## 1
Amino acid sequence: MRQFIVVSHTATIDPGFSLNDLPGSGGRMDLLCRCVGSSLLISHASRSNARIYLLLQNQITIRIEGSEIRYLHPDERCIAALIKKALEKIPDTIGQIEVESTPGIYISKRNFRSLLTSIESSGTFIHLDEEGSSSHTFSLPQEPIFILSDHQNFSPLETDILTEYVEKTMSLGPISLHADHSITIIHNLLDNKTI
């Protein structure tokens, strides 16, 4: 299983955002939508061996399962509509217990620490950072969990939490890339590794 955690600092947790204004009223929801597409979609199908977690404002976690997802199309508006339906379920969530909004999409009230704690036994955390070990020499584990930030850097508190949970930091190169592009490169590395 390939897992991705995308930490969003600005995406709204209000389901009232406009599908016509994802960067504005959605608080850069467009970035998250691109990450979902890069994580789960391939040509005419979805990756059954991939999962993505979206952490919004360190309060809400949305888990999307590639093996269960339905109605997922590559356009940002479609993906945003599925996230919007998930956010509408916030009143139904009780603590960290997940609620399914649509097939393959689950929402809970988990912050960064509780998210990492809940999944740490399912794989090896890898922080993607320009200062990490080169992907050319990096030994990818069997069950990787990649952690990325949105268009903002991790906060000092998030960095402290990362140091508690993450043993490995990997670099895709010296140039800072968009999160969705990084995910695509990761898939390519893993796809080629299995050949």
## 2
Amino acid sequence: MVDEVRVRFAPSPTGYLHIGGARTALFNYLFARHNGGRFVLRIEDTDRERSTQESVDAIINGLTWLGLKWDEGPFYQSGRTGLYNEHVARLLERGRAYRCYCTPEELESKRTKALAEKRKPIYDRTCRERKACPADRPYVVRFKSPLYGTTAVRDMVKGNIVFNNEEIEDFVILRSDGSPTYNFVVVVDDVDMRITHVIRGDDHLNNTPKQIFLYNAFDYPIPRFAHIPLIHGADRARLSKRHGATSVEAYRDEGYLPEALVNYLVRLGWSFGDKEVFTMQEMIDNFSFDSVSRSAAVFNPEKLLWLNGTYIRARSAEELLVLLRPFLESRGLSGAAGGVNHPGLARLVDETKIRSRTLVELLDMMDYYFKEDIEYDPNAAGSLFTADRVPHLENVLSRLTCMDPFSREGIERAIKGYTSESGLKLGDVAQPLRLAVTGRTVSPGLFEIMEIIGKKEVLKRIENAIRYIKTLAQA
């Protein structure tokens, strides 16, 4: 009986942390936490040419942002060469592996012949029982796979799966340059790290019998396996950038909240009744592979946007302002109208978040507060910034200049009073004024926005709009 559940997330640092990898990490994390176990992070960086420090950083930063805190690691395969060489030597001594001296040209010739004869192009085991070893000739080390029988896998997602051993070749465990291969090192690492459950994408399913051979060759206990179906796009093809799926860090930079992305990822292949929105603790409490689907999940960007908007609306204005700071800094905005700590800004956030699905959308809808120079909507300016509007804006400017205190109620009385006296509709004055103050025709309540922006900034923006209109009239 296993005393402690131990799982691992073992990405290769050859690119960013993508959506599929993040979901695999999440399922490992939830299974460990649900069972009071340990979550291990291992970086599989034996691919020396493709592995980069930038990719390692992206993986670690992505997991940290998502809140998937590992208990042990990160461990790097590149620093474990001695352990791998020791295990290769052990297999050679036991007669469970052998040196193969076939050249790449010979292997290609064998492959071509097999295809021509309509046979599976697997290695024909030329060197398996070879006695004479050519001097100074490069070689790889191959594992002696069983020649007959079957290998069964009791998968926690897919059920019982049986592989015919005769279809599995004598695979390479050590390359000619002395570097170990994936299927070999993953077994050595999983044993050394006492991994009890291997949870990964089902694109690794065909690797499983080879790894079981190795466990048996070393007399090591075999872990339980769970192969999660891949994520597909709406066209049922494997998920890629063209489906809108990018790196975890890209979603962060586009204004998604980590808890929203985690919530969305857990529902890609796992369900708990009809429930859609989960806290992390609810995921941990209810996660089970009994509820993981055997079929591929479909990635839906619109549903992710909807869910992210749900989480944004649930956040307080104060929390959202903290989350907006990096976006403000990246745009060089600091709150020209009164600073990010203006007491009325929280009201503006609360008004705006109702229609926002991402932090970027939220900032875009209220960036007029932070800008020193307002850019007018060109389509609106053509119809609202006409010469006949100037007298109205000048009259409103005069009334607001004399106002003290500069309050929402006072602003509303001043503007409505002017329209009533002039026989105008409120929109005849309010819409050009809204464009002057915000640069757009749609915003939360105009009078409240003007109060939040503040008297000095509002007067300046109206004056700028008047000059702009006069410049257009003279052009």
